[in-house]
Amino acid sequence: MTNKWTHLAEEVLQGKSLTKQEGLDILSVPDQEILSLLNGAYILRHHFYKNDVKLNMIVNAKSGLCPEDCGYCAQSSIANTKADKYPLLDKDSLVRGAKEAMERKAGTYCIVASGRGPTEKEVNHVAEAVKEIKENMPLKICACLGILKEGQAERLKEAGVDRYNHNLNTHKDHHTAITTTHTYDDRERTVNHAKNAGISPCSGVIAGMGETDEQLVETFFALKELDADSVPVNFLHPVQGTPLGELDGVAPLRSLKILAAARYILPDKEIRVSGGREVNIRSLQPLTLYAANSIFVGDYLTTGGQKVKEDHQMIEDMGFKVEQYAVPEPS
């Protein structure tokens, strides 16, 4: 029997774009309708991605030492935390991280560095590591180095970077409540720099930072307008010592509704369950795969993740399968 969420999914497959009100309706759906909502989301997810799950692994290539004041981040200049502080890892360490990504069956290896944006020396350093990785391993490489200057995206592209991540994080009107040392436009501009250089754009949100439902839905529409290929959906993991450390995080069912909203609004995009899934979604994590087609495996930047074997087992138990490599193996 067709329910309203299945019907909506079928309309989306026929070319309908969700309205803002329909996005809000998803976030406010009664809890008892969650399985019907996820069934509709799965129709969309399966149409574009079958039962494949893309795995991504992060290497914290440079930690702490950040001048920005992002309220959620343990590495920011205003955070009172014990986050590690170290400069950019050497090339051999970055290459070893790629080998570890292979062992975890990850198709995408994400090189993430703290700071406002990379220096020219840092861009060149990452580029050298990426060249070596791409020559020897069938991995998609994502870089997340902060705000890019003119010409830097092009050098990363030339080195073999496939994707660049720079999250919008939150709604334009809520941005100054989260950080004041850079603007929403700075973030949007960096995503466009990557796109213009021929790099696949990756940009997403952090839910649970005090935004309204309207702001969250409108941010998903902003990502649709930006045409981000990959959309990480993070859930605030409150860290003591940060301005947002006293917030409650996001309830499990609420998290599933947010992922469903992302899928209905961005039906053909890679929707990734990202930071905070373990502490926010908890025992309901397997259900995320009905809306999302991508997850991170292993630890995040300053917080721990679920054990890799448990993620592999979760995927298998749910009847999904790992898309092991995102790019063809070298001949």
Provide a descriptive summary of the structure in words:
There is one protein chain. Helices cover 38% and strands 14% of the residues. Strand 7, helix 9 and strand 8 form a beta-alpha-beta unit. The protein has helices spanning 4-13, 20-27, 34-49, 91-103, 120-136, 152-159, 184-196, 213-226, 252-265, 277-280, 308-317, and strands spanning 52-62, 108-113, 140-144, 163-165, 200-202, 205-207, 230-235, 270-273, 294-296, 321-323. The protein starts with a helix and ends in an 8-residue tail after the last strand. It is α/β, with parallel strands linked by helices and 331 residues long. Helix 1 (4-13) runs parallel beside helix 3 (34-49). Strands 1, 2, 3, 4, 5, 6, 7, 8, 9 and 10 form a ten-stranded parallel beta sheet that branches. The longest helix is centred in the middle third of the chain and has 17 residues, at 120-136.
